[in-house]
Each structure stands twice: as C-alpha cells, then as structure tokens.
Amino acid sequence: MLAEIAAAAALICLDPGHGTAPEIGRELEPIGPGSRQLKIKDPGGAPGEAPVALAIARRTRALLLARGYRVAMTRDGTGYRGGNRERARFCNARGAALMLRIHADGSSDPALRGVSTLVPALRRGWTSDIYAASRRAGRIVQSDVVAATGARDLGVVERSDLTGFNWADVPAVLVETGFMSNPREAALLRSAGYQQKLAGALARAAQRFLIR
Ligand SMILES: [Zn+2]
C-alpha cells in the first residue's frame, strides 16, 4: 500500500517523437555529454508518424492522470523548438520516474511490421546510471504492447546512438508502435481504437514498472 501511494505520486515524462519546427530540426547537437559526434535534432520521422505519436501520448496521459500519476509532455503540439537533448533534459529536470518516448517506425520495405522497444545501450558515464532500470522498463513496455495489440514482436533493442537516451538521467525507453510504411499497420496506428489500445498498454506498463 505504501509503495502504491509513493508510486502514484510519481511523474511520467511522455515524449512524442518528432513534430519539431523544421528550422530547428535541421540543427545539430552532440549525441551525448562531452561528445564531438553530432546528430541532427529531428530528421522528421516516418511520414505521418509525428501526429500518431502525439495522439497516442495524449491518450496515455489521460489514462495515467486517471490513475493518479503526474504527467509531463515534452511537446503537446507541432513546432517543438528543442532537440533530443532538450527532450531528455526536460524529463531530467522534472525528476521523472520514467521517460516514455513514443514513436512509429518506417522502412523502405512495406511488408515490415511489428513493435519494438528501444533501450539505452550501456556506456559508462552516459547511461550506466539508467541502463538496468531502462532495460527492465523496456521489457515490460514491449510485452504489454504486444499483448494488448497482437502486433508482431520485434523485441527489445539496445541503442547507443540515440541522443535522447544518452542525455537522459532518468530511466528511458522508446517504443516503436508499428510501421507507418506498412499500409495495414499505418491504418491501425491512425485509428482511435488502436491508439487507445496502445495507450492502455503504455499506461499499464508504466504502472507495472513503478510498482515492482
Ligand atoms: Zn521516430
């Protein structure tokens, strides 16, 4: 019971991908603290991805608020003016219990479909403080989303190249909710019913991660 009360006060930071103002999205930023390797702030994502990510995030926020959690969103519209470093810093500054990044995938192969969850790879000084917790969160998110949607399970994937992970000081995961490049999956991702299914799975996963 005490754990539930403590967890209920936790803040979840939702980060719907992309939707950056084009002139900002073209700018470069270091992929991690002290890195000379630069990466574009926002290549724009798959066609149609940004509004789908935002719609799922808004539905997830509603469900989390209804369960008594606090929620912050890195963006709640188009024209975001930061990069992935700013997205991570936004969640860091709020002491988020989890940074939940919401995306959809794209591929040149229209047959590709399914859900994957990206987690930070281990890198000393960058992600060593969040690696284990992020992995645990990633496994929960992946299994809950696959169970709720019946989507093809593409697994949990470690990534060392994602700026938004390397700057995060709070547990962080990125769910690729499906492929916008697959006509059937794109139609599902654009539908209110499927978005709500995804939101339910994400809210449940966040809660399972927090109440261990
Ligand atoms: Zn994306």
- Heteromolecules bound: zinc ion
Share of residues in strands: 15-25%
Rg, Å, rounded: 16 Å
What strand line-up does the widest sheet have?
Answer: 4-1-5-8-6-7
The secondary-structure element order is: HEHEEHEHEEHEHEHH
The residue ranges in which pLDDT falls below 50 over 5 or more consecutive positions are: none
> What integer is the average pLDDT?
95
Q: What distance separates the N and C termini?
A: 12 Å
Choose one word for the global shape: globular
Q: Helix/strand/pairing class, anyone? A: alpha/beta
What is the helical fraction, as a range of percent? 40-55%
Summarize the biggest pleated sheet. Answer: 6 strands, mixed
- For the secondary structure, the number of strands is 8
The count of helical stretches stands at: 8
Description:
The chain is an alpha/beta fold. The chain is built from 8 helices and 8 strands. It has helices at residues 2-8, 22-25, 49-66, 84-93, 131-149, 163-166, 183-190, 192-210; strands spanning 11-16, 28-30, 38-40, 70-73, 98-105, 115-120, 153-159, 172-179. A 6-stranded mixed β-sheet has the order 4-1-5-8-6-7, with helices on both faces. Strands 2-3 form a two-stranded antiparallel ribbon. It is globular. It starts with a helix and ends with a helix. The mean pLDDT is 95. Zinc ion (ZN) binds at residues 17-18, 45, 49, 103.
What is the compact description of this entry?
With 212 residues, the protein is of the alpha/beta class. The chain contains eight helices and eight strands, in the order H-E-H-E-E-H-E-H-E-E-H-E-H-E-H-H.
